[in-house]
Amino acid sequence: MRKSISTLLGLTMAMCTAVSGCSSQPAATSTEAPAKTTQAPETTQAPETTAAETEGAGKGTYIPGTYTATAKGFGGDVTVTITVDEESITDVVIEGAQETDGIGSRAVEELGEAIKTAQSFEVDGVAGATVTSKAIQMAAEEALAQARGEEAGVQASVKMVPGTYTAQAQGFAKAELLEVSVTVSEDKIESIEVNPDNGETATVLQSAIDLMIPRMIENQSVTVDSICGATVSSNAIKAAAEAAVTEAMVAAGGAESDVKAFYVQEPVSQAKEELETDVLVIGMGGSGFSAAMSAAQAQYEAAGKDASKVSVLGIDKAGKYGGTSALTSSPMAVNPPSMVAEKGSDFVDTAVFKEDWMNYTEGDAKEELVDVMIGKSGETLDWLMDLGFEFAKPVPGFGTPYEVVCYYGEGFVGSDGQTTSKSVVGGFFDKMMEAYEEIGGKYLLETEGTELILEDGKVVGAKAEGADGTQYTIRAKAVILAGGGFAGNPEMEEKYLTNDYYPLKGTWNLFGCAQNDGKTIEMALEAGAGTYNISVPPMVHIGGIPVLIHDYPVNKIDGQIDMWTHRTATWSLNDLPMVMALSPDTMAVNMEGKRFTDESGLAMMDPWKAGPEFYSIWSDARIKDVQENGFEYASTGLFVNQGGVPVNTPMPEIYEVLDKAAEYGLVYKGDTIEELAEQIGVDKTVLAESVKGYNAYCETGEANGEIEKADRIYSPEGADLGEAHYKKGIGEEGPFYAVKGASWCYSTAGGLDVDAQMRVLKEDGTTPIEGLYAVGTDTIGVLLTEKKEYVKYGGAAQGWAFTSGKEAGAFAAAFAAQPSL
């Protein structure tokens, strides 16, 4: 039974023969004062409170009532509402719907009771949720100040020892910290610089550097809004800058809390602007950018190449263009004409390919849209290359014979043995933007579409809001929606994903762009649009754990380069729970306690079958074996990791790491299977039967209704890595452990109903909403079925983004040119 897994992907990068210490942090130079190097804390530690201090609230401390304050969290506003009587805090309610589920949400759920118990905002933050915890503490402090009839304590004066101070904080790169240097005078932040030697995604980080840092300096603030599309990198810069400024204030004899003088919010603009354009594109990722470019080209050619006659405006809430398309590796392109001409024949028999596609989707895909994808994607690739993109020739996708995947640059792995850098891909989009502006196209970043404007049932524009608060009314003859799906919106996931075929409801861990929050889909639905296959399982190519821990050193492996990050390979005990969650040689169960897949697919293609989360079950005997002998298989967890752990290497710290992971809600323990079932909230009979069946299968080799495991291991590239040895069973003696795994998704895969011109259809499925188009992941459900996962031919979402965008742009431009408009 051939089964491809990614448990050994990058294994050579993660192998190490002995435990080594982490490298020392680089020293920083100072101008006038000694340089300071510190690390932004992972959790907010509160001082111990004595009984006398607790009693200090006393009578008359508060004005009885309810008080509310808001601060910026990780994903958005966090609001704390505190009710007090004269002597004490009687109730605390925290709201933070946009905080990351399982991380920031834990702080939202847990800190209210902690504040009430401590009778103070000074409580310990939740592990892994530094930003959310801090926001809650700040809002609680302000609410309590209101309750005392005071203003929150922002100092009027600042004193620092002039110089350059360096600090580090955790950014998007999982295996290293982001280093920031802050130069201060006696009372001002003079400059903020990010060390260019970092593991962040360069194009994403640069948007935070270019847009946010100037605002931090202008407002003398370490709490300005993060840049949409670069939230994690933005938060890292702010956290490190705050730590550096704190050092400067402490050096001048102040207290750490004095840094609150730099908790300054940006002013909100009250400006209102009215704009007019022929074609408005909402979303400038791959699909929206292609739509805008295509529309602009159509108008440019129709106007005799007069750029002044081009009237196309693209907007995006993020601080950069390109979206998810600039961060992935490949689009699907069927028989690109230029490459077919060079080869002398087609790469794919399109009739056979289409028949296979329609059979896979069981007739649920819209045939006319599959025809668009198969018939136009090759032309679209040539179009992109004319705009400065570079692609390798088509190759087969994962597990299929069809040569339809065209990787950026030289290919999946270039001549240097590495994948194409995201900086290189970002450069392709920069070239496209130069061409777009040259022919008269315009765009606004950090501008979010909020509402469609309808007149007599026709879409005639949209309202939007800028990051500074500016309110835009944009009149347009045609509007193209390109929001990228709704994977960044837990409420929409709960509402639109069903459990009809798989347990899809719940919040999915997101590896894609968090700004893809379904707003454009909601705007269309409010205008009367219908959906099509909106409950297709989310696109999941990565398994991992819900939240990474950062309590242990990250060790560099000298002489090895990580093919994904292009930086020195690493390994860390922090990844031990991740390796256990994705292990092919134990049993994994879904949130009902049932085994759901061949575990050899957990690391890459199959975790979605369990839904957002699952558990891998371990016996104490199996853990002791790892303690003494190490893992036979150790997944790197692809991108959501700190390098993995070495194979065949004893892990003496395994129990210590499991105890630490339990603090994050990642590991549960029970003396019996039944007790473990209670710990993880599943039916004890169901889990016991699952373990019994799995053990019998591992012992006899006879499936008897069990899901079979692969006999051999294959890499994602198809290389035969040898015979599998992972049918080991769970065992019958406790204690037993459950390690929580997670399905990390790029995007949702269902959305609005459209026709072959990319016009949005009403709920009847036949009537277009005049003036409204939609593209990319907002519409990809038309190619799929809710009964199965996203097609595995390779690059379908990326190919659909570019292809549907190019098609929609041309159709929208033609519609806008009609004399009646």
Query: Low-confidence parts, pLDDT < 50 over ≥5 residues?
Result: 1-58
Secondary structure tally, helices: 19
Helix content: 25-40%
Distance between the termini: 61 Å
Oligomer: single chain
Give the DSSP E fraction (strand runs of 2 or more residues): 15-25%
Strand segment count: 30
Biggest sheet descriptor: 8 strands, mixed
Please identify the structural class as seen in this structure.
alpha+beta
Write down the overall mean pLDDT: 87
Which word captures the global form? globular
Rg, Cα atoms, Å: 27 Å
Give a structural overview:
This protein is an alpha+beta fold and 821 residues long. Helices cover 29% and strands 21% of the residues. The protein has 19 helices and 30 strands. Strands 9, 10, 13, 14, 15, 16, 29 and 30 form an 8-stranded mixed sheet that branches. Helix 3 (104-118) packs parallel to helix 4. The radius of gyration is 27 Å and the shape is globular. The termini are far apart.
Short recap of the structure:
With 821 residues, the protein is of the alpha+beta class. The chain is 29% helix and 21% strand.
List its traits.
821 residues; alpha+beta; 8-stranded mixed sheet; 19 helices; 30 strands
Summarize the SSE layout with pairings.
Layout (H helix, E strand, L loop, with lengths): L1 E3 L6 H4 L21 E4 L11 H5 L9 E8 L4 E8 L4 E7 L8 H15 L11 H18 L15 E8 L6 E8 L4 E6 L7 H18 L11 H21 L20 E11 L3 H17 L9 E5 L20 H7 L6 H11 L6 H20 L8 E2 L6 E3 L16 H17 L3 E4 L1 E9 L2 E9 L4 E11 L8 H7 L12 E2 L8 H8 L4 E2 L6 E6 L9 E8 L6 E5 L3 H6 L5 E3 L23 E7 H10 L24 H10 L3 E4 L2 H8 L3 H17 L11 E3 L5 E4 L12 E12 L3 E2 L6 E3 L6 E7 L21 H21 L5
Parallel strand pairs: 1-25, 2-6, 9-10, 9-16, 10-13, 16-30, 17-27
Antiparallel strand pairs: 3-4, 4-5, 6-7, 7-8, 11-12, 14-15, 15-16, 18-28, 19-27, 20-21, 22-23, 23-27, 24-27, 25-26, 29-30
Helix pairs in contact: 3-4, 5-6, 7-11, 7-19, 9-10, 10-19, 17-18
